[in-house]
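Service request form, structural biology core

Requester: graduate student, group of Dr. S.
Request type: structure prediction, single chain
Budget code: on file
Notes: please return the result as structure tokens.

Sequence provided:
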Amino acid sequence: MVKFLGSNDAEKAGDYNLSHIDLINHRGDIIDLKYIVIELNIYESIYKNAVTGSIIITDAKNQIGRLEVQGLERIAFKLSSPGTKDSDDILDASVETGEPFHVYKITDRKQVNQGLLVYTLHFASREFMRNLRTKVSQAYNGRLDIAVRKILQEEDYLDSRKKLKYEPCGNSDKIVIPNLRPFDAINMIAEKSLPEKSQGVGYYFYESVKCFHFRSWESMVAKQGNAKRPIKQQFYYMPLKHKDKAIENKIEHDFKSVQSYRFLNNFHDVAANTALGTYGHRVIPYNLYDKSVINSDWNYHNMFDSTLHTDHENNYRDAEKTPVASSAVDYDNERSVSDYPESRVSLQSTTQFLHNKESGAGYGLDVFQDSSLKAQRISQFNQVMHGTTLKLVVKGQSYLEPGDLIEFKIRPVDSDKVDIEEDNRYAGQYVITKIRHQITSDIYTMVIECSKDSVVDPVVAGNPQHKASKERGDLEDIQGGGGSLNEGHGRNLHN
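Core staff response, request fulfilled:
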């Protein structure tokens, strides 16, 4: 059973205040679940338009059966961690706010012993359900963030009561929504959106428990004026032998300590990122009427310092903070990984803008510029999703949400010093991309996924491996040696 602690009882990291958790059926009948819930999970992600979750229940009295649960119920609760003072830091899905979650599925129902049932209730936000029942057939002309607000808040569409935190768009456009679900319509607009205050392209539209977000990647790493965004929380991993016994019981230390970590993705998967067009990408605009085409090539290293990244300094872009060095070139032709635009080729029709005279090629730009933005958007998205991705397990902190900037410090494996010494290749600033809030009988845990698209210390220029390879090749020529290449089983890399 989960603990229901009062605000005075939550004293240490991992404690929580869960004042109530109610199941409300279609008639308005309420069942207090506090004594039969064994696990509560809440999922948030910058890649998902809505918050989802699940509740695992043990039921010895068939309360759910008597309530006639059929997937039309609501789940209401309030959750906070120790030290939470601001109401905005509480995960409030209560009836009072008008934002309880909606049950949409019941799974894993089984009898574990005589008279005891276990099952899982799956829930999602109110807007998730509205999205399934609504279509948008509408034309919008003007600033794109205004169109998003209308779809999200107007009664005919999502009718959301939640706050929307949005980054103003710097571009206007004429958008025709062709009978799409509201989330799909907003996602279409997000692809076309350009930030007003930065050089980024494309927006993320997602929901946290607290509000909806419509923002660019650069807004997650910088604030107005391109100044570095404040760190929301600092985390560090330190082996047990290096821990300071004097501070082990301090709540701040426990909140910052990482229980475990694992790298899910690594920017060094050069094969995958090459196939995805992260480093090099060619967009070919074509005209269906006169059959003309133009090549528009994207080069990752040339354009790296045109946008802000996780480890940038205030008002400062550093082209050498790339995870993959531009100085690392092929052994045979002196080309870097970004010098192959044919790695991914996309087509873009220019005739789609014929009836959009106010905004030219979609953004008020010429065809070439518009194509370059498409390649940049794909590359930037890949840098986030397929870059260095880290999973952390930490004590629950209800004030964190996707899009927050955190700092992670890790001791190099060969370090014996007591003081934390950063591994600047994998340490540094990360943006939270996913959060799983997990409430069990004795602890509030968070599983955090976060991404970074740069490194703390610039990559040192030079390519000694290349020189060594040349010398080795010369030696083979002298000796008359020859080599064979063993072919392994490769995997398909999809565009």
